[in-house]
C-alpha cells in the first residue's frame, strides 16, 4: 500500500492516532459535536499498519470499520479522549492528533432530559474550556517522541498554522483549509504540512491515504 522506500519503515514503532470528533454531553440525549468523519485518522492508521507500525487508534464517535490490526480505543467526550491518548502515549514513538476535539463543554451536565416549558424561552447553555490535549503532549513529550497536530483553518491559513505549531510545541502541523465542503466526510484532502524544523511541504489534493503517507514520511525522518 506504500510507495518505494516506505516498506516497513515503521516496523518496531508504536504510534498513537486520534480520530473522529468528540461529543460533549448536555443532557442524556443531547451533545455539542464536531464535524469530523474520522476518515483521515483511519487512513493514517491503515497506512501506519501497512508500514509496520503497532497502532493505537483512539476513536471518537466514528462509523467506520476497525482497521485490521489496530488496537482501537473508543471514546466519547474530549476528557475521555484526553485520558486515553495520554495513557497510550507514554511510551509511544509518535502521536498524531487527527481528531476534532471540542474546545468547550457545557459547564454543567443535566442528569435528566431538558424539557420545554410552555411559553418560556430556553435557558442558555454555559460553556467552559476543555484541556488542550496536543499542547499537553507537546509539554510531556519523551526525548525523540514525534508529535503531530492537525489544524482546520478558514482564514489566514498559513499564519494561523505557524502560530498554532509553535504554541502547541508540535513537530509537525497538517493544515487543511476547511469550509465549503472541502474536507469533511470526503475521501480526499489537500494540505500544507508545517514543520518546527524544516520547510513546509505542500500536499496536493488527493486520497486521504496519500496525505497520510506523506505524514508518515515526515515522522519517519524524525525518528532516528
Ligand atoms: N486539539 C487538542 N485538544 C483540544 C483542541 C484541539 O488536542 N482541546 C488538537 C487537535 O486535535 C488538532 C490541533 O489541536 O490536532 C489543532 O486543533 P484546532 O482546533 O485547529 O486548534 P485550537 O487550538 O483549538 O484553536 P482554534 O481556536 O483555532 O480552534
Ligand atoms: Ca479548536
Describe the structure.
The chain has helices spanning 39-50, 78-89, 133-140, 157-168, 208-222, and strands at 14-20, 24-27, 30-32, 54-60, 71-75, 94-97, 104-106, 127-129, 146-153, 172-177, 188-195, 201-207. It is α/β, with parallel strands linked by helices and 224 residues long. An eight-stranded mixed sheet has the order 5-4-1-6-9-10-11-12, sandwiched between helices. A two-stranded antiparallel ribbon has the order 2-3. Strands 7-8 form a two-stranded antiparallel sheet. A hairpin with a 2-residue loop joins strand 2 (24-27) and strand 3. The chain is globular. The mean pLDDT is 93. The structure holds cytidine-5'-triphosphate and calcium ion. Cytidine-5'-triphosphate (CTP) is lined by residues 78, 97, 99, 101, 103, 130, 132-134, 149-152, 164. CTP binds at residues 103, 113, 150, 164, 168. One of its GO terms (cellular component) is phosphopantothenoylcysteine decarboxylase complex. Its cofactor is FMN; Mg(2+). Catalyzes two sequential steps in the biosynthesis of coenzyme A. In the first step cysteine is conjugated to 4'-phosphopantothenate to form 4-phosphopantothenoylcysteine. In the second step the latter compound is decarboxylated to form 4'-phosphopantotheine.
Can you give keywords for this protein?
about 220 residues; alpha/beta; 8-stranded mixed β-sheet; two-stranded antiparallel sheet; 5 helices; about 25% helix; about 30% strand; binds cytidine-5'-triphosphate; binds calcium ion
Amino acid at each position: 500500500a506504500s510507495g518505494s522506500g516506505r516498506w516497513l519503515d515503521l516496523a518496531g514503532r508504536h504510534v498513537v492516532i486520534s480520530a473522529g470528533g468528540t461529543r460533549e454531553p448536555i443532557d442524556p440525549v443531547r451533545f455539542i459535536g464536531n464535524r469530523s468523519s474520522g476518515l483521515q485518522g483511519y487512513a493514517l492508521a491503515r497506512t501506519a499498519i501497512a508500514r509496520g507500525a503497532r497502532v493505537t487508534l483512539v476513536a471518537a464517535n466514528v462509523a467506520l470499520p476497525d482497521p485490521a490490526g489496530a488496537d482501537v480505543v473508543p471514546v466519547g467526550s474530549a476528557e475521555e479522549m484526553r485520558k486515553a491518548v495520554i495513557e497510550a502515549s507514554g511510551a509511544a514513538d509518535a502521536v498524531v492528533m487527527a481528531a476534532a476535539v471540542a474546545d468547550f463543554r457545557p459547564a454543567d451536565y443535566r442528569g435528566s432530559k431538558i424539557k420545554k416549558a410552555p411559553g418560556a424561552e430556553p435557558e442558555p447553555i454555559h460553556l467552559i474550556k476543555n484541556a488542550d490535549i496536543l499542547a499537553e503532549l507537546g509539554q510531556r513529550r519523551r526525548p525523540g517522541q514525534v508529535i503531530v497536530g492537525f489544524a482546520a483553518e478558514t482564514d489566514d491559513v498559513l499564519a494561523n498554522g505557524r502560530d498554532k505549531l509553535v504554541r502547541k510545541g508540535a513537530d509537525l502541523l497538517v493544515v487543511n483549509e476547511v469550509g465549503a465542503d472541502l474536507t469533511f466526510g470526503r475521501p480526499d484532502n489537500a494540505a500544507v504540512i508545517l514543520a518546527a524544523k524544516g520547510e513546509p511541504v505542500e500536499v496536493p489534493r488527493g486520497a486521504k491515504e496519500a496525505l497520510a503517507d506523506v505524514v508518515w514520511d515526515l515522522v519517519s525522518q524524525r525518528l532516528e
